[in-house]
Amino acid sequence: MSDDLNSVPKGIAGPSSFLDDRLGGANFLKRNLRKIFPDHWSFLLGEIALYSFIILLLTGTFLTFWFRPSMMEIAYDGSYAPLKGVMMSEAYASSLELSFDVRGGLLIRQMHHWAALMFVAGMMVHMLRVFFTGAYRKPRELNWIIGVLLLTLALAEGLTGYSLPDDLLSGAGLRITEGVAISLPLIGTYLTFFLFGGEYPGEDVIARFYSLHILLIPGILLALISAHMVLMWVQKHTQMPGKGRDNKNVVGAPFYPAFMAKAGAYFLFTLAVVAGLATFTQVNPIWLFGPYTPADVSAGSQPDFYMGFLEGALRIMPAWEINLFGASHAGTLPLSVIIPALVPMGIVMTGLALYPFLERWVTGDNREHHVADRPRNNPHRTSIGMSAITFYGVLWLLGANDEISANFHISLTWTTIGGRVLIIVAPALAYLITYRMCLGLQRSDQAVISHGVESGVIKRLPHGEFIEVHTPAAEDIEAHMRGKQPVLMLPVAEDAAGIPPKGMRGPLGKLRARMSKAYGGEKIPLDDGHGHGHDEEEHAAIGSGGDEDRSLTH
């Protein structure tokens, strides 16, 4: 039996021997192919983003064979009759050709668009999983920073790709981009002229966005994704708390064959979902919008979901501006554009990048963490995350304030005012509600540990009292709950002379001490597991042999 357990599978031994004879890489291959990966559904969220990126590379390569990144005006002479003879850019004409004249072109173009949406969505939910479980803590802070950079670059990649077809909808988005760029103090005019090659819309923006979209940004994304994966591989994957799991081991299945087979199947599943969406769900029908001209505008237009929060910020922002030198244009700061363009993105991205270091500063926690937290067990972190989601969600929703107003027959003015109120009130409410929910869930865990789980069996005791029999929680469930670790707090106690620790004496130190006391500590401690549940079991056993025992089950 022991020989079977210690033997190397043929699928690994053969290739290892082959490579070792030629490259001396057997030990490296055997060690890495047997690397253990934990098994939890939430760990697959990041793989959605990874596989969507692969689909983007494949479909994008196909599209480059036919797309022409030129703004030269031509008369359309393709298959789509309603636009025959209409003057348009070569970029738009080639996009129509891809949609109607290239075999499979529309399917691939829509797969590319759906994969882009899933790529950004996959990164967002993966980042939320990492945040809520505390998987960004030491030693993974660098990987967390890489993830924030990846998300930022993905938004830029989406913006440049969205603008390439040069249709009316993407042109409206490009016009907003130009307005934001030119509003930036000092550098706005230079940046706009550099981007558009002169006065808007210029002749060069599509070609320049094309270079960014297919070459520069994907190259950086590929390098960062590779670094992200290498760091994850070297540092090992975090795991959820449970039986036999601690910071010194990883419980799961080996990379080969278990994880490799699962990953391969999951890639095919992701590909099938993207292909199914592209086949049955129309996205970005550019032929209905027509070519972009700066004089035209359409009502009810919104960008892709990942840019919706910036659109919402622009729509609800009051028309504020600062005139530094009277009414001269040179001294005008259009806050109604600068603030929505920079502040929401700055709050979200800067907050994400700094959070691991701020949390460590507040708690003084310099330990390595390889076991993830349950979100309920760090209520302040979870509440902060839900506040950020609510902040993003309100802005995203208000990006369609005209549609909300039209469909629900609400004044656009009141919709906008309501959005301005919600952007302040809703995150605060989300924080309070989430915090109370986390404490309630911790109390629920405490009850399970102390009293067991409800069995559904009602017992009548000899003195007439009815009780529900509780049974001990399953071993794996109890181990999962007992994986809870108190959030560390800084040592702030004064010494015998009444002097606080060295780092806590100034105003900043006192603030840090108060924050640590509020953020850290054990909010709802788990009991020792010897509560009333065992007494109830004992009562049930006493009454189980006589006629006085009348049990009801449901």
Automatic annotation (TrEMBL):
EC code(s) of this entry: 7.1.1.8
Keyword set, alphabetical order: Membrane, Transmembrane, Transmembrane helix
Basic and acidic residues composition bias: residue spans: 524-540
InterPro entries noted in UniProt: Cyt_b/b6_N (IPR005797), Cytb/b6-like_sf (IPR027387), Di-haem_cyt_TM (IPR016174)
Stretches the record annotates as Disordered: 519-554
Chain ranges passing through the membrane: 48-67, 113-132, 144-164, 176-197, 209-234, 255-280, 337-358, 379-399, 411-433
Signal sequence residues: none
Domain spans labelled Cytochrome b/b6 N-terminal region profile: 15-241
Cofactor(s) the protein needs: heme
Catalytic activity: a quinol + 2 Fe(III)-[cytochrome c](out) = a quinone + 2 Fe(II)-[cytochrome c](out) + 2 H(+)(out)
Listed PROSITE patterns: CYTB_NTER
Listed PANTHER family: CYTOCHROME B
Protein name per Swiss-Prot or TrEMBL: Cytochrome bc1 complex cytochrome b subunit
